[in-house]
Amino acid sequence: MKALILVGGYGTRLRPLTLSSPKPLVEFCNKPIVLHQIEALAKAGVKHVILAVSYKADKLEEELNIYAKQLGIKISATYESEPLGTAGPIALSKKVLQDGVITELGNDGEAIFFVLNSDIICDYPFTELLEFHKAHKKEGTIVVTKVDDPSKYGVVVFQESGQIEKFVEKPKEPVSNKINAGLYIFTHKIFDRIEVRKTSIETEVFPLMASEEQLYAFNLKGFWMDVGQPPDYLDGMCLYLNHLKNKEPSALIPKGVEIPDSVEIIGPVLLDPTCTIGENCVIGPNVAIGPDCRVDKGVRIQRSAILRGTHVKSHSWIHSSIIGWKCSVGRWSRIDNVTVMGEDVSVRDELYINGGRILPHKEIKESIPQPSIIM
Ligand code: GDD
Ligand code: MG
Question: Which of 123, 159, 152 is nearest to 138 (CA)?
Answer without folding.
Answer: 159
